[in-house]
Amino acid sequence: MTLRSRLVAFAAVLVLVVAGTILFVLQVRRERERAAAAAPPVAVTDLATVTRQPHLIFRSTAIGDDYGRVAAVPLGDPSGPRAFTGASCDRVYAHRDEAVCLYSKPGLVTTYQAEVLGADWAVRRSLPLAGVPSRTRLSPDGAWAATTTFVSGHAYSTPGAFSTETLVTPLGAGGGKSLNLETDFKLYVGGRRNTARNRNLWGVTFTGDGDHFYATAASGDKTWLVRGSLKTRELTALRADAECPSLSPDGTRVAFKTRNGQAEGQWTIAVHDLASGAVTLLAEKHSVDDQIEWLDDEQVLYGLPRSGSGPSASDVWVVPADGTGSPRLFVADAWSPAVVR
Amino acid sequence: MYITIRDRPAENRAAGPKARVATTVVLLGVVSLLTDVSSEMVTAVLPLYMTAELGLSLLAYGVVDGLYQGVSALVRIFGGYLNDRTNRPKWVAVFGYGISALSRIALIPAHGFAAITGVVTADRLGKGFRTAPRDALIADASDPAVLGRAFGVHRTLDTIGAALGPLAAFGLLLLVPSGYTSVFVASFGFGLLGVAVLVLFVPDRRTAGGGLPARRLFAELLSPRLRRPLLAAGLLGLLTVSDGFLYLSLQHSGGFAASWFPLLYVGTNLVYLSLAIPLGRLSDRVGRARVFVGGHLALLLTYLVAGGSGGGLIATLVALALLGAYYAATDGVLPALISKRVPAAARGSGIAAAQTVVVLARFAVSLAFAALWEGIGPQSALYLAAGLLVVGIGAAAWLLKGIDA
After folding, report:
1. Cβ–Cβ of A335/B55 closer than 8 Å?
2. Distance from the B25 Cα atom to the nearest Cα atom in chain A, whole angstroms
3. How far is CA B60 from CA A307, A340, B49, B55, B181, in A?
4. In the predicted model, is pLDDT for residue B191 greater than 90?
5. Where are the transmembrane segments (chain A) (predicted)?
6. Which domains does chain B show, CATH number per domain?
7. Which residue in chain A has the smallest CA separation from B193?
8. What is the ipTM for the molecules in this complex?
9. For A44-340, which CATH class?
10. Tens digit of pLDDT for each residue in B166-176?
């Protein structure tokens, strides 16, 4: 081939690639508009009416303009009309009149934000946030907020690059500095102090006593359910192979996800009885990668990505906490559930 | 920036240090630039895509990140062997660049954890295949007297691509919110353009010799000419702490580095791309072995700064600059050093052998260093590594003595 014909061939490839990409992007935008227009309209109701009764706060993933917005449904009618708030979050947790919201702000350099929202869903306070949002919880008395983010290294690095950052921040009037679970707390496993530098901590759930909490500790390829104290700044391992704990409303059991001998990236959900140490595997057969939320003392809620229908589609499911029964759809097009009574 | 596009046949051995960098080298640089835009676009959005869009956890991402590092090292030597066996470096490289480009389009239907690990593995396999034949092509097309500069030009273009990729990806996400599919399609487009430049413009040089049989190739790799540089590269590789740990050490000491963690690698890349050509030229003048060993002195200083600092702004910037200088003085200089020591027929394997030795040594040491890091803490671990590196640099300097002559 002569240089001339090669240049012509390259110009053709260039035009095809550029035109193809532009057409694809335009097509995606157009299809989104069409899908938004064609999507069965989400039945919407009044927020004040919903939040007066026991309700579920979640991130709505229904296609349309309200995608990613925080919404509420009554616990009595979870598949009924949803009420939208003004907040948009990747991860949300709420109590009556208080919520914590983690989100990413896309930009040339994508940044991440964490905010405490008040009763009117307006920003009351900003929290530090270093990476991709993952988990968040409020303590029952509203005095503490916990956030877990994913801080990643880059390219040339090898092990040790994967890292989470979990902060607990006092929300009281006095405020105060955030505590970092990794650096401000001592970790004990089997009675011995663990000083591993590659330890990671994530997924906090608070007890009602204003001091204790449960979380995940990891070092190397091991994970533990740990119980921590804000006063003594100590974390003690309770059992191995347990991640993203969630304390039941009556404070007697912890639901968590466990590898349980499965492949990397596969988890089963289980419940650990704090008094007896007995563990019950729940009936959900799909791999669950979420921090579980208790609907009441008998049932748990969790998000599942909806396979086959493209990314970003997810639903919230419910399953009995005693290993019996079978999972059932609780709220479609939803993620990051929080029960508010 | 110093890039001159002017064709000067490689056979012109008399050209001396003033010779221009061959067009083939610049073209291969452009191929790498386009491919790096393509791959860094994906790397930049993958954590968000996996966690925010697919609802996968952090740990799942950690596994994928590990795959990114590990896979390519092992196929590299096979790529080098294939290159020397078939004697068609261009087409081996096309195969490698091709798989990586195709893997982007596979990301669109890949929604689960297993599918994504598969795609990432394919991408890395492609990288493993293409590196050695590409470096062999650069060596073949260049005047040996300016080989250091030629590799410098190539690595500069390559790193520019790596810096532009994330900007392109996040720019596109601004246009199409949550439009990860669009990012993958655009990334595929860039990858395709890279392959097109390679196929259409890079000459299909056949390296000398008719494809070495495996046994002779093996003998060549163990020959005294290569034994010393391979030993030196392996020894220094064993004393190279992965920069993930250096970043973590800066971050753990708090302060500036903690809040700017994601930008640390950008700083390293900027220094790398601005120093790759000057240090490549320096290596042509004063000797590649000298610059290669000197680069490890910069690494030694990095350990001391990262170990001794409180994570302040100045210390962080100094550490990043030193780390970038280390990459600039070693990454392109090593293949330049090796190319001269092996006959053209075994060049791909020779370069691949050196790169594999370095990557495997670094991988082994990162496991050992992780244990050290846990045992005695980051500061002592870095100081210990620095002490060992002093000895290693001395030994490497002795092994490489007279090699530039």
Report:
1. yes
2. 17
3. 17, 30, 12, 10, 20
4. yes
5. 6-26
6. 19-201 (1.20.1250.20), 212-405 (1.20.1250.20)
7. A14
8. 0.76
9. mainly beta
10. 888 888 888 88
